[in-house]
Structure formats: C-alpha cells, structure tokens
Amino acid sequence: MQRVRVVTLNAALGPLDYRVPDGMNVEPGSVVVAPLGPRQLIGVVWEPERLQTEEVGDNRLRPLVSVMTVPPVPDPVRRLVEWTSDYYLAPPASVLRMVLPSSAALEGPRQLTEYAPTGQTPERLTPQRKKALAGIEGRQGTIRELADHAGVSDSVMRGLMNAGALGPVQVTADRPLACPDPDHSPPDLNEEQREAAASLAEAIGNGFDPVLLDGVTGSGKTEVYFEAIAECLRQGKQALVLLPEIALTEPFLKRFEARFGCEPVAWHSDLRSSQRRRAWRGIASGEAKVTVGARSALFLPYPNLGLIVVDEAHEPSFKQEDGVQYHARDTAVMRAKFEDIPIVLSTATPPIESRHMVEIGRYRELTLASRFAGASLPEMRAIDLTQDPPPRGRWLAPTLVNELQANLERGEQSLLFLNRRGFAPLTLCRNCGHRFQCPNCTAWMVEHRLMHRLACHHCGHVMPPPKACPECGEEDSLVACGPGVERIADEVAELFPDARTAVVTSDTIWSPLRAAEFVGAMEAGAIDVVIGTQLVTKGYHFPNLTLVGVVDADLGLQGGDLRAAERSFQQIQQVAGRAGRGDKPGRVLVQTHDPDAPVIAALVSGDGPGFYEAETDARREAAMPPFGRLAAIVVSAEDPSEAEGVARRIGIAAPQVEGMAVFGPAPAPLAMLRGRHRQRLLVHAARMLDVQDVIRDWLAGVEWGPKVRVSVDVDPYSFL
Ligand SMILES: Nc1ncnc2c1ncn2[C@@H]1O[C@H](COP(=O)(O)OP(=O)(O)OP(=O)(O)O)[C@@H](O)[C@H]1O
Ligand SMILES: [Zn+2]
C-alpha cells in the first residue's frame, strides 16, 4: 500500500496522511483532492520526512479522491513554503494558499464564449453603437474586453450583440499567451549600463547570485535588468519582476511591450477571476515567460524560473502586514536560493539591510552612477519654515509658490509631495474641542472632502461629516486641522485658478487602469501640478516634470520607529528623483522646520553616504537590524482585559535565553484596531540566535481562548 502525506489549504489542519488508491499516480508536489469527514479538501503531496504529523495506522487511512490535472508544485516551491512557514511562524497551509490562490485555475480545460463582428451591420444603428462597432476594430473577445477596447459600457456591446452585429464564438479559456521577443527592440545602452547589463546577463543560468543594482534615479536600471530578462528568454527560462504597487504595473506593462513586443503576464489583486486562472495556468505550465506582479507573485509555481527582479527594493510595502507576515524582498532572495538562480534588487536608495549584505560579501553590487543621456540629478534646497513661513491657513511657503508660478509660466510640470491622504488629518469642534475618533481604532477620522466623508485609514470606517458636533451640539462648528493632499490641491487652485491639478493617492489611483489614465494625462501635458502621496514617489518618468516641492519633510520623522529617518531619506530622495529626468534640469524644494536635522542636511548637501554611515553605526551600536533581530508578539481581543491577561501570561512565560531580551507587554501605539484591543511584546535578540525556535517553544507553553489572537511579526517594519 502506498501512503502519502498531504498539506491541505486549511490552516487549521496539520499535514494529514492518506492512502493512494491503486492506479493513481502521485509524487511529491502533486495537487490532490483528499477527503476529510464528509468534505473534500485540496492539498499537495509532501515528502513525509519533511513534515511531522500524528502517525495513523495503515488500516485507518482514507484513500485520496483524485489528482488534479495541473503540474506538480515544483521542489524549490515546496522548500520555499517550508522556509516561509518556519521563518515567519505561519502554518504551511497559509503559505501554500499563496501557491494555489485560484481554485478556478485547478480545474481542467474550460470553454469560454467570445464575440466577434458578424459582418452584418444592422440598419438603424444608434450613433453610439456605430461608434462602438468601429471601436472594436474587428477584434474578437469577451463582451467586457470588447467594451474596454472600444471605450464603451458593457451594455452598449450587448446591444450590438442583440442586434446581430456581434456573434458568439466558442474558444478555450486558456488561449495561448504572447511570447516576449528578446530581440524585439533592444536599447542602445551607454557604457555604464552595458557593463551592468552584461554582468547580469552573464549570471543567468549560472546559479544563485544576489545582486544589488544600485543606480541613481533615472539611470536606466529598468533598461539594464531588461537585458537580463532578455537573456533569460533566450535560454528559454521564466523571469519574475516584483513591483511594490499594483498602480505601477500598468506603466510597466507598456514599457515592457515597447522593449519585448508584447505585454508580460500581470499578477495582482485587481485581476478578474478568469484572468487569474489564465495567468496561473500559464505560469504553472511554464508557458508564461515573464510575470510582473505584486509581492504575492513570488509564491507562484514557476517550473523553470531563471531570474527574479525586485524593483524599488527599498519599498516598505514589500512587507506583508496581515496573514503571513512575510517580507517579499527577503523571501524572494530565499526563492532565488532554492531555485539556484540570480536575483536583482534594484533601487536608487538601497536599504541598510541590503547594503549590509553587500558589505559582508553576501550580495554583489552593480552601480549606475549617472542619469541617462546626460540628464543631471536635480538641485535640492531646504525651505526653513521658521524663516519663510506660509501665510496663516496656508501650507506652501512663498519661495515654493514663486517657483510654482515660474514653472507654470514656462509650461513645465510640478509635483507637490505630502504623504497624507484626504483633506485634513484631524477634525475638531471649534466650540468644545471634540475630536473625531474612529469607533473601532485608536485613530482620528480623516476628512476626505472629495468623497464628502470622514474616514479611518486603519479600518476603513466612514461617516458623513455631521452637521452638528456630537458632543456639544453646536452647528457648523467643525474645523479641519492640518493639511492633507486635497487641502494642498485647494490651495493651489486658489493661488493659480488656471492650473490643471491632479490629486494622486490610493483614493484616486486604486487600479492599474486609473494609473494608466494618470500617466496618459501627464504625458499629454494635461496636468500642470500633481499633488500626491508616496504613490507618486517611485518609478514614474515624466520628462517635463521639473519642480518637486516636499510640503512637509518633517512628517516622516514623527513616530520615531527604527527606520523613520532612513525611510524619510528614501522617500524624499525618490520623489526628488522624479524631477528633471528629461533635458530640462530639475529643482527640489524641501519645506522643513528643522533644516539641520541629519536627514534634511544630508539630502540638501548630497551626503547620502555620510547619512547612511551614521544610521548604520547607530543600528550597529544598538544591535538593531541588520545587526540584531527583532520580533513582535501582538495579542489582541475584543475584551481589553482578555488581551491584557494573555499578554501578561506570555510575558511571564518568557524564557531566559542568552542574547535575548523581551520588552513589554504594553498597549500597542495603535491600542485598538478594528475593534480589537492590542498588547505588544517586543523581542530583541542577537543576530545568531534562532529566535523563531525560541518563540515557538515559548508560545507553545501558553494557552489562550478562541477569542484571543496572538500573532508574531518576525523582522517587523511596523511598530504600531
Ligand atoms: N540606454 C537607453 N536608451 C534609451 N532610453 C534609455 C536608456 N537608458 C534609460 N533610458 C530611458 O531613461 C528613462 C529612465 O530610465 P529608467 O526608468 O530605467 O531609470 P531608473 O533607474 O529605473 O529610474 P528610477 O529609479 O527613478 O525609477 C526611461 O525613460 C528610459 O527609457
Ligand atoms: Zn478605524
């Protein structure tokens, strides 16, 4: 009798053993359907020696139901699942769910109805339908695709179908994917780029090779790693590019198409289920040669991966903050290791963790020191708000306003950066001082005037701004305190009524399509001033954008977590990097109350190396990451005393281990989130300590009820 061990997609279950019925062929990695009580579960066959479970006698084993007709999950992916589960203290099932995220993809071949012009043009076609029919340009596709292509609504398309102008065609849902051509349109690289590109191309097919591609903004890092992708394609291998925001995928797809002749496969949360199925099947079969995606694309079962690129590798959004709390950059390096392939971490502002890996010889570094085509890096100046303050009730200093005016007169584009969504971060009653707080979180309600709502940025709770203060009953007494991007947009509109402005935040650019519209408008010169959050700081290339104003450079330094200064530096350096990327030089004005703060001083004087050295020394001295390790244990419950009780018991049970210290428990800074009260413990450990092992044993010795949640965040990035 053959028995197998199966990891199911159910996180509440450990691995389970089954009997393989006669005639069924399974191997490690096979995706199978297994019975559990009256239900059926999807799971993956695992090497039994790698995962422990309760032994069940042969006679009690139930037989597997079936094997799914998809390729087995490859070896390196199974190793990645084990590593991620071990390192981030998450159930293997939770990680495996990211490998098999679409149940539709696991089903067999599927038929799909598409529509194509029948060649009959019905009489009396409305002008709108006539235009839609022309807009199809003879294509075939689903109603939705045709509507998208023609720029009309689905119902117009359905009208055409009912009128007989479009007819149904049955096709397989798994249409062939376009294959990128490495020689479609190669760029003419400059000397520096050529060297870096050659070195990356050389690495393809030659084993594990982590590379930090450190190039100033606008130096052509993308062009350089595209050459590595081209080599990967020539060798018939798959490549994966991870981007930090799905808003960046759309411009990336266009750029990729210009270089390789067709779009890569995109993977992100905004895909429709049919697209997700198609992408997953193409990836798993090896047909999809290049995938670009958000962090979750990292776990997909590429059978033949040849290269991973992590673009904007400094971005904090690579850290997943719920579910499996993994860092996609670090996990990507592990995947590259299991696959035995190169990985490129591309960034203009390498994080201290990655720089350190270069210093100790684990990663190699390739540098691009200058901007492409002779464009110079922008000139950066601080505006001291204590000397040059904006008028009362305004946020832009006179110097910045003058520069904006000059830019508008020259017909050049400007960008104002403020990392705060909405109109104002705080709303209070002028009469009694009442502040609007989220009922579910320790957070202020943020006014969003465009949506006419107060919103909590932590849980999404929204309410209309009340007419009267709920505390004192005074009418029309609410005042907005402080600026958000919408308020800056209002200020620009008052100062320059003719300027065309765009607010760019996750509220306005929530999908790749909206991002594409924004990029189109910028490129067409239809926007004069962009007011945006961190969403506009990265990746974009607008040659006519010559002025960047940082509205509040001190903002990121508040809160004071471990990486606050570094993050501020990166953010301002990145947003500054949007200026002067074409033939016109760029200027950056940084508004601050403290021009002598090390971050600001380093930015203005261009002494990045000095800043990093000081930051690194400080971390080394305090044994903070990457020189020491941190893990946070967060205990939450709806009942504050339950959370407190369990947190206290965990604190008391903390083992005495050399090289490890435990701080807390204490109420988390975000003491309530989504209605749950939160207590935090912080574990600080020496670099060499297997802190996960310690925490696993430690927590195994403490019990808590079902209403309490305990989560461990290894290498935390958020300290809230
Ligand atoms: N060799 C080249 N030939 C033609 N165009 C190039 C070349 N190198 C760079 N460019 C162009 O210069 C611009 C900046 O390049 P790219 O976006 O790759 O820079 P980057 O280093 O990724 O910048 P950032 O870090 O700011 O995102 C792009 O429009 C790119 O197409
Ligand atoms: Zn909330």
TrEMBL record:
Subunit structure of this chain's protein: Component of the replication restart primosome.
UniProt-annotated binding residues for Zn(2+) 2: 438, 441, 456, 459
Cofactor annotation comment: Binds 2 zinc ions per subunit.
Record-listed E.C. numbers: 5.6.2.4
Binding site for Zn(2+) 1: 429, 432, 469, 472
Catalytic activity: Couples ATP hydrolysis with the unwinding of duplex DNA by translocating in the 3'-5' direction; ATP + H2O = ADP + phosphate + H(+)
Reported cofactor(s): Zn(2+)
InterPro entries named in the record: DEAD/DEAH_box_helicase_dom, Helicase_ATP-bd, P-loop_NTPase, PriA, PriA_3primeBD, PriA_3primeBD_sf, PriA_C, PriA_CRR
Gene3D superfamilies for this protein: P-loop containing nucleotide triphosphate hydrolases, PriA, 3(prime) DNA-binding domain
Domain of life the protein comes from: Bacteria
Helicase ATP-binding domain mapped to chain residues: 202-368
Organism: Sphingomonas anseongensis
Family listed: Belongs to the helicase family. PriA subfamily.
PANTHER family: PRIMOSOMAL PROTEIN N
Coiled-coil regions listed in the entry: none
UniProt name for this protein: Replication restart protein PriA
Function of the molecule: Initiates the restart of stalled replication forks, which reloads the replicative helicase on sites other than the origin of replication. Recognizes and binds to abandoned replication forks and remodels them to uncover a helicase loading site. Promotes assembly of the primosome at these replication forks.
GO molecular function: hydrolase activity
Keywords per UniProt: ATP-binding, DNA replication, DNA-binding, Helicase, Hydrolase, Isomerase, Metal-binding, Nucleotide-binding, Primosome, Zinc
Pfam families listed in its UniProt record: DEAD (PF00270), PriA_3primeBD (PF17764), PriA_C (PF18074), Zn_ribbon_PriA (PF18319)
